[in-house]
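Exercise 7.
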Amino acid sequence: MKILYALQGTGNGHISRAMEVIPALKKRCEVDVLVSGTQADLTLPFKVDYQLNGFSFTFGKKGGVDFWNTYVAANAKALRDDIGSLPVENYDFVVNDFEPVSAWACLIRKVPCISLSHQAAVIDKNSPTPKKKNALGKFILKNYAPSQISFGFHFCRYSGTIYTPVIRKEVRHLTPTDRGHYTVYLPSFSNEELLRRLCYFPDVKWEVFSKHATEAVNSGNISIRPITGDAFLESMAASHGVLCGAGFETPAEALYLGKKLLVIPMVNQYEQQCNAASLKELGIHVVRKFNDKAIPIVREWLDSDYKIEIRYPDQTELIINHIFELFVTKDMKRLQWDKDYALTFPEKGGKIKAANYKFFSKKTSAK
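Solution. The predicted structure, written as tokens, is:
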């Protein structure tokens, strides 16, 4: 059996998760790897068989997505050509982590595609959503990388097809300490914006890791460093708290390490707004916009002792076993696409429901 594992290369989270998922898949079959997008700061320690431009959103410098640079970087013809030429029919099925080229190629050529991503959990009807509706953001999440059936990752198990975060081994092997500083990772803010806000707190030592830094710079109580995996993990493990965006992997790792946490979701980014809603249910501090009005909230967080530790179990092997149990034993060649992207068996004509499978568990608590 041969499968394609396709992942979005825009953020570090997809890369760090792939480091755990790919070895688990390779224990069971031959695996080729596809990466689209190039904004991640981490690199895969595996051979990448397909490196594509894909379609990626570009980080801005004031807390949101840079839509103009996203548009400029987009190449519709190249994307269309990649979708048309990617040989997904050479694989028994595709495991997709929010990667659009392989997902749409599978849809066009009727190749089985399984979503294994955080985004799949975000759009689950049982997952938390922000009070302010965002129809466009929800539409993008549902249609960016369509699949027949989805398994997702979230901070809690909101439904039977949602699992807790994949925590990479490098984080699991860390021994948390407390050297008193705060680790900052806000890639959608420029260094100037961060300095402007963090200088309001001269009594706090900030260690900022920036996508916009090429060398280490110190400004009073604030140090700004380029992002390197080892340095960032060491800083986070030894921190008193973590200030970061409302992405998925970094907050999950901070919770795993038992660090005090404050998140700032990117402006007009629906996925991060949903993540913030989930974290707020756990009691985590959330700042909607990092402006002057947020200063008292940040001070309240700095003065607070509230933190939680969630020792997320290592479920990677379990998840991969579930995928193979569900699909391989059901004969992948009999699966078909329908207009709703739902999985069907031709001879039965009905959609598969998670409740039909005994290994799906009921909603559980975070801890």
